[in-house]
Amino acid sequence: MLSRPSDHAPRPLVGIALACSGYSLFAIQDAVVKWLVADYAVPQILFMRSIMIVVVAGIMVRRLQHPSILKSPHRKSLLLRAGLMLSAWMAYYSAARHLGLAEITTMYFSAPVMVVMLSILVLKEDVGLMRWLACLGGFAGVLLAANPAQAPSLVPAAMVIFAGFCWAWSTVLVRLVSRTESTLNQMMATSFLFVVACGVTLPWVWKTPDLFGWILMVGLGLVAAAGQYLLYEGFRHAPASTLAPMEYSGLVWAFLYGYLIWSEVPTLNVVAGAVLIVASSLALVWWERRQILTSRRLTA
């Protein structure tokens, strides 16, 4: 089963494909949240999203007879990761009320660079020059595409950087925990904490959705569950530093969804930035494939 821990050899290209698929779904998630946040509080949106993930993951855990999350040797790491992700979500979407999309996108996408740095310090991964270049190339593409025109406010800007740091730490923990813990258990642990933390605020923030609101919230949970599953599986097959630049591909999807949903036409700098992001990602794919072929020739 894909969702069970395993000790198979790393397959970077499989990890890259899974991660890119997951990030494309996260872009849909962000578009739905952007739609919902105009009428509903962030804790209510997170509560509905998370409870759907808990239900989906719980059904699959029971069906596949996974070991109980309470018996996991990584309970503390799972709890820490859930807290980091909750902090990242709350800080990011709270700051979005005060910053423009260009500013918040630019600052948040410092996270993959942090992932590379943390993967060296925490996971002791051999990052290598090509992975650094792909990561920095993707960040340069984000800067070019976002093109922030004004200096952001200090407090909201600090909240976005804090969100990026929390996400980077949680990404490293995914790689660490995924070595022995099932994907579904990780999803259950994170989303259950979200349900509890956001649930206590509902008496003060709850607004009963209309039919369209219910459809968006349920759909948000299903899309988020699928995106998480694909991303977590990706970390089983590739190092965190390899998958970090793939996060930039989510920006390209965001531009596409923005055009399809809100008829937002990308400017020239946005197109140029997207090209640089894609080029950086493809260069990393080429490099990883070359490394695999070289390794196979040496062992043949």
- Described by the principal axes of the CA atoms, the overall outline is globular
What is the CA-based Rg, rounded?
19 Å
**Number of distinct beta strands:** 0
Strand content: under 5%
Question: Helical region count?
Answer: 13
Question: Please, what is the average pLDDT?
Answer: 75
- Helix and strand content put the structural class at mainly alpha
Q: Please give the domain count.
A: 1
Distance between the termini: 29 Å
Question: Percentage of helical residues?
Answer: over 70%
- Low-pLDDT residue spans: 1-7
Structure keywords:
300 residues, mainly alpha, 0% strand, globular, disordered N terminus
Protein topology:
Blueprint: H1 12-36, H2 42-64, H3 75-95, H4 101-108, H5 111-121, H6 128-146, H7 154-177, H8 183-199, H9 202-205, H10 211-237, H11 240-243, H12 249-262, H13 268-299
Helix pairs in contact: 1-10, 1-12, 2-8, 2-10, 3-7, 3-8, 4-6, 4-7, 5-7, 6-13, 8-10, 12-13
Describe the protein.
By secondary structure, the chain is an all-alpha fold. The chain has one domain (12-299). It has 13 helices and no strands. Helix 3 (75-95) packs across helix 8 (183-199). The radius of gyration is 19 Å and the shape is globular. The chain starts with 11 loop residues before the first helix and ends with a helix. 47% of the residues are buried. Mean pLDDT is 75; it is low at 1-7.
